[in-house]
Amino acid sequence: MNIEDLKAFKKVVELQSFTRAATELNFVQSNVTAKIKRLEDHYRTQLLYRDKKSVTPTPDGKVLLTYANQILDRINEAEQTLLGGTSAPFHFGSIETIAATVLPNVLSAFRQEKPDVQLQISTNATAQLLQQIRHRKIEGAFLSGEVNDPSLSALHLYNETLVVITAKGYGNPLESHQPHNIIVFVEGCFYRGYCENWLDYHQVQVNNYITLNTLDGILGCVQAELGFAMLPKSVLKEGYHNDFDVYELSSPFEQVPIYFVHREDVMQTPVFNQFMTTLHNYF
């Protein structure tokens, strides 16, 4: 049994004739007859009633016709996706801070070139996104920090400036000898690890880590004076000085590189190549 057998079966049922089906499929009639016989042998049942005036499906033939229609429809979809190059869903990831800042403008630029592409975007911590890339769950991801993995390729996009953010009047954490609550993303987040290194470097005493999954949640906790956070300066909206005090970081902590990371052997579909071209042009 093969796909051509199912196509022949569907056409015979549609036209109720071996002769007309053979003509439309550009086959000799014996070829069509052989395809139907192959299907009947495979399924060990009669699929068609062969009357003098017409050909109609048996009960088992009707069942096969339902599945044949589904199979052929899916094959057509696959051909349109793979050969057309514009309909395939493009699934990639991003850390929360990039998704909230530069990603919307990047997607807008990409949409101008590929308006019909279905986009699927997953936000997660750096470590989790790297695992998804390695296991081919996503095509790539926007990440912060260096990636030391020979199986992965990283396109440098820009450098991010990190700052310490506190509520108004909280004070500079480096000038306080009291232990602090640190408001951070979940384990596996690059910025969390970066902040922990900064705390150790400056010997800042930690009372507790408050873990949240969202950028808005972290900013809300900082504003409520529950502790301080380290975040990219770009996440702060215009007029942020009304709500927060912001402290610049000194060397070696002030700059963090941002990359789009993907597998070295990623399948370079037309959609993927256009996305990479958009990144090169935008940054």
Automatic annotation (TrEMBL):
Annotated ranges, domain HTH lysR-type: 1-58
The record's InterPro entries line, in alphabetical order, gives: LysR_HTH_N, LysR_subst-bd, WH-like_DNA-bd_sf, WH_DNA-bd_sf
Q: Could you confirm whether the keyword Transcription regulation appears in this record?
A: yes
Query: Gene3D superfamilies per the record?
Result: 3.40.190.290, Winged helix-like DNA-binding domain superfamily/Winged helix DNA-binding domain
| Keywords carried by this UniProt record | DNA-binding, Transcription, Transcription regulation
Keyword Secreted carried by entry: no
One short Pfam name that applies is: LysR_substrate
- What PANTHER family would the database entry show? HTH-TYPE TRANSCRIPTIONAL REGULATOR, HTH-TYPE TRANSCRIPTIONAL REGULATOR GLTR
Family classification: Belongs to the LysR transcriptional regulatory family.
This protein is called: LysR family transcriptional regulator
> Native species of this protein?
Staphylococcus hsinchuensis
Biological classification of the source:
Bacteria, Bacillati, Bacillota, Bacilli, Bacillales
